[in-house]
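From the shared-data thread, chain only:
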Amino acid sequence: MGSPPMIDGAFARWLAARAGQALLDLRAEMGFTDQGALKAAGDKISHDLIRTELARWRPADAVLSEEDEGSRLAWAAEVNTDAVSRLTADRVWIIDPLDGTREFSEEGRSDWAVHVALWARNGSASHGLVAGAVALPAQHRVLGTDHPPAYPPMTVEAATARGGRTLRLAASRSRPPVFLTDLAEDIGAELVPMGSAGAKIAAVVTGEVDAYIHAGGQYEWDSAAPVAVATATGLHASRIDGSALKYNEADPRLPDLLVCRKDLASRLLAALQRHSGVA
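Structure, as tokens:
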């Protein structure tokens, strides 16, 4: 395929697209009869590809991948060399080789993704993310910070009703927050079940839904690349209490987030305060 682009944003797009094509090829080769085997093979082939290319083209950078051994543990820097390498590094790639393994293993589903993000110590944004790409291989598209999509347009209904239309909130298919149904009823919103976090945030970026609210458990790789793209687009992204999202922390758990249009942020944060139990 030749040399990749050397600008970080374009490189992230190239890498996510390559991994996404490998996953599509694997799906075609293996089929869907043994979903467990397909999931395991998908995680491995994408992780190995991304790790190999990062070692080749960005050898000085550290990496945090969902598929790394011990990646979910909150390490003390003084006792773990892998943690030291990323916690003291100036640049860290945060990757989810296959976000939405369940959806990937189900024939006909397209709501799964590949996440590639770059965190930099000198990043100007509070989250420190300076580049990122989300490949949606079965949708044949890649969203990236190198060419971020335009800010989602207001729909005709929203424009004419001054925001009075029914809001659409992306929600987990299997693990939606327990308070989300009550919150949606409170603000007159419709819940739209989807698969991976990347697919849900991508739907906010493209205007298919108005917001994505999650609580109850995620890690940095679940949101880093989608958040990088969303904020490059101009969307709001924060914890559900309104505090800043932070990446490359010693503890990679990042259990909740809100991604939405900026004009909805105050309304949704107020509703979250009423329903989620956050102070």
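The chain has two domains: 8-144, 156-276.
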